[in-house]
Specification:
Layout: E1 10-15, H1 26-37, E2 41-46, H2 57-64, H3 85-96, E3 100-104, H4 108-120, E4 128-132, H5 134-138, H6 140-143, E5 151-153, H7 161-169, E6 183-186, E7 192-193, E8 220-223, E9 226-233, E10 236-237, H8 247-254, E11 260-261, H9 264-278, E12 282-285, H10 295-307, E13 311-316, H11 323-331, E14 334-342, H12 346-351, H13 359-371, E15 375-382, H14 389-402, E16 406-411, H15 419-426, H16 451-466, H17 472-478, H18 482-497
Parallel strand pairs: 1-2, 1-3, 3-4, 4-5, 9-12, 12-13, 13-14, 14-15, 15-16
Antiparallel strand pairs: 5-6, 6-7, 8-9, 10-11
Helix pairs in contact: 9-10, 10-11, 13-14, 14-16, 17-18
Length: about 500
C-alpha cells in the first residue's frame, strides 16, 4: 500500500494595501522568496484591485487640486475593480487551507483593513495567523489585543522567518520559540512572550525579490502622465538621519548600524535578474536617501543600471544633491528624484524637525536637477505642531524659489512612534479621533492656527507656491470662494503649460 504523500506547507500572504495604486511592496516580495526557498506553497491575497468602501481623501484631493497629472489607464485594466474583498478572502482561505496566514500592516493607514481580514477568518480555522510590519513595531501593545493572531513579528524578518515558522508549526517544540529573535508569540497559557532579542537582517545575503505572485497590473506606475512598467528595489535600508517625524529615528536609537548599504555587485545582480525575468522599463530605488552613498558606489551602481537599458527614479535629501552627484544621476538615466523639504522656516526645520539644511542648499538641489533635466518632486507638510500661517507661507515661498517640477504637499498626519507625535500629544493637540484614511484633514487642535484654516491652505497651497506674492490676496479669497479657486486653477495651469 502506497503511503500518502505529505503535502507542502501552505502560506497565505495578505497585503491590505489601501488605495495606494499599483505597487510591488518590498516586504512581501522578499517574504515570498524566503517562503518559496523553504518549500512552501504560496498564495497572495492583494487588496490593491478591490473597490473599497472608503478611499484616501488626500489622494482624491491631490488630483482635484492639480498635484498629480491625470493618467490614461486605458488598456491596463485599472478600471476592473472587484468588490467583495471579504467574501473572496474567506473563499480563498477555505479552498487553500493554509497552515499560516501572514498579514503585513505597513502603517496605521492599513490597520483598519487588516483587522477586517483578521475578523473574517473563521473561528474554526486550524492554522496560525501572524502579523508583521512597521505598524506592529510602533503599536505593539495595541496589536497584542488583536483577536485570532498567534504571533507577531517585530522588526525585520528575513533572518528568522523560516525558523519561526518551523517552531510555530511544531507544537512539541514550542518552547524553542523563546530563542527566535524578533518574534512575539503566545505560550500555552495564551500569554504573550518575547522577543528574546532584536536583530537586523543581513540585506547583502537575503534572497532576490520575488514578484511572481502579484497581479500583472502591479508593475505599471504613473509617471508624468504616462505609464511605465516599473519594479521597486532597495540599495540601502534605513536612514543615517534622525528627523523627529520619522520612524527611522526610533530605529537608529534602537540599533547601531541600522543604515545598511548593499554592495554594487549584489545590487546589480539582483536588478539584472529582475529585468530579465519581468521585462522592465524602469526601476525605483526605495532608499530613504539614495545619494547618501559615496560617489564611487553611486557611479558604479547607476552606470550598471544604464547598461541594462533601464531608467530609474530615487529619493534623496538636499544636502546630498551636489552638482557632481546630480550629474552622475543624469548621465546614467535617472528620470526623477523625490526630495524632502518639509518646511520653509529654517528655525522650525532645525529646532523642531531636526533637519539642518539651509534654504540655499534646498534651492541649489532643485536647480541642479533643472540644469541636468531631471524631474524633481518636492515633498512638504503643513499644519505641523505649533506651525503658523506665516510658516506655511514661508514653505510656499521657498518652493516657488526652488522651482521643483512637482510639489507634493500634505497635512501633517500624527503617526505614532516618533518625537514629533509625542510632542503634539504632550501639548494636548491630539484630542479627537484620527482618521488615517483621510489625511486631507487636520487632526491637531493647536493655538497657532485653526485646523479649518490648515485644510483651506491645503487646497490653495499649490497656488501660493507657484504664483507671485501679488496673487496672495486673491488666493486668500480663494480659500473661501470656490469660483475664485477655479479661476486660479485655470490661471496656474496656463502658467505651468508655458
Amino acid at each position: 500500500m502506497t503511503a500518502k504523500l505529505k503535502r507542502k506547507k501552505r502560506f497565505l500572504i495578505v497585503s491590505p494595501m489601501f488605495d495606494f495604486g499599483p505597487f510591488l511592496p518590498l516586504n512581501i516580495s522578499v517574504i515570498s522568496a524566503i517562503l518559496e526557498k523553504a518549500g512552501y506553497e504560496i498564495k497572495l491575497f492583494d487588496a490593491t484591485f478591490y473597490k473599497m468602501p472608503v478611499r484616501d481623501g488626500w489622494k482624491e484631493a491631490s488630483f482635484a487640486i492639480g498635484i498629480f497629472k491625470p493618467v490614461n489607464w486605458m488598456g491596463y485594466g485599472m478600471d476592473k475593480l472587484k468588490k467583495d474583498y471579504i467574501g473572496d478572502f474567506k473563499r480563498l482561505v477555505r479552498s487553500f487551507e493554509p497552515d499560516f496566514i501572514g498579514i503585513s500592516i505597513f502603517t496605521t493607514l492599513n490597520e483598519k483593513l487588516a483587522l477586517s481580514f483578521i475578523d473574517a477568518i473563521d473561528d474554526d480555522y486550524e492554522g496560525q495567523v501572524i502579523v508583521g510590519g512597521i505598524h506592529c513595531d510602533i503599536n505593539l501593545e495595541r496589536v497584542k489585543h488583536y483577536k485570532k493572531i498567534s504571533a507577531i513579528i517585530a522588526g525585520e524578518c528575513e533572518n528568522m522567518l523560516e525558523d519561526a515558522l518551523d517552531f510555530l508549526a511544531a507544537d512539541s517544540n514550542r518552547a524553542d520559540l523563546c530563542n527566535v529573535p524578533n518574534l512575539i508569540y503566545r505560550d500555552d497559557a495564551g500569554t504573550w512572550k518575547g522577543p528574546s532579542n532584536m536583530v537586523l537582517s543581513d540585506i547583502e545575503h537575503i534572497p532576490f525579490l520575488n514578484w511572481d505572485y502579484f497581479d500583472e497590473r502591479n508593475f505599471y506606475r504613473p509617471f508624468e502622465g504616462k505609464v511605465l512598467r516599473m519594479g521597486h528595489v532597495e540599495m540601502a535600508r534605513g536612514c543615517p538621519f534622525r528627523c523627529t517625524y520619522c520612524i527611522n529615528e526610533r530605529f537608529n536609537k534602537q540599533f547601531s548600524g541600522f543604515w545598511r548599504v548593499k554592495s554594487v555587485a549584489r545590487m546589480l545582480k539582483e536588478i539584472r535578474y529582475l529585468n530579465c525575468k519581468y521585462k522592465l522599463e524602469a526601476i525605483k530605488f526605495w532608499d530613504d536617501d539614495f545619494l547618501a552613498m559615496d560617489m564611487e558606489k553611486l557611479k558604479a551602481v547607476t552606470a550598471g543600471v544604464r547598461k541594462m537599458g533601464l531608467k530609474f527614479l530615487c529619493h534623496s535629501r538636499p544636502e546630498h544633491m551636489s552638482l557632481e552627484k546630480v550629474k552622475v544621476l543624469a548621465d546614467n538615466g535617472c528620470i526623477q528624484v523625490g526630495v524632502g523639504v518639509e518646511s520653509g522656516n529654517p528655525e522650525y526645520r532645525r529646532n523642531v524637525l531636526n533637519r539642518r539644511m539651509t534654504d540655499e542648499r534646498i534651492i541649489e538641489a532643485f536647480r541642479n536637477c533643472r540644469k541636468y533635466n531631471i524631474i524633481s518632486s518636492a515633498y512638504c507638510m503643513i499644519g505641523m505642531p505649533d506651525e503658523t500661517r506665516k510658516d506655511i507661507l514661508a514653505t510656499a515661498r521657498l518652493l516657488r524659489e526652488a522651482n521643483p517640477h512637482v510639489i507634493v504637499h500634505a497635512i501633517y498626519a500624527p503617526y505614532e512612534g516618533n518625537r514629533l507625535y509625542q510632542y503634539a500629544k504632550s501639548r494636548g493637540y491630539l484630542n479627537g479621533a484620527i482618521n488615517y484614511e483621510n489625511t486631507a484633514e487636520c487632526y491637531l487642535e493647536m493655538p497657532s492656527i485653526p485646523r479649518q484654516e490648515v485644510e483651506k491652505l491645503f487646497r490653495t497651497f499649490i497656488f501660493y507656491s507657484r504664483l507671485e506674492d501679488s496673487y496672495y490676496p486673491l488666493i486668500a479669497q480663494a480659500e473661501q470662494d470656490e469660483n475664485i479657486f477655479r479661476r486660479l486653477k485655470v490661471a496656474l495651469e496656463d502658467k505651468l503649460s508655458k
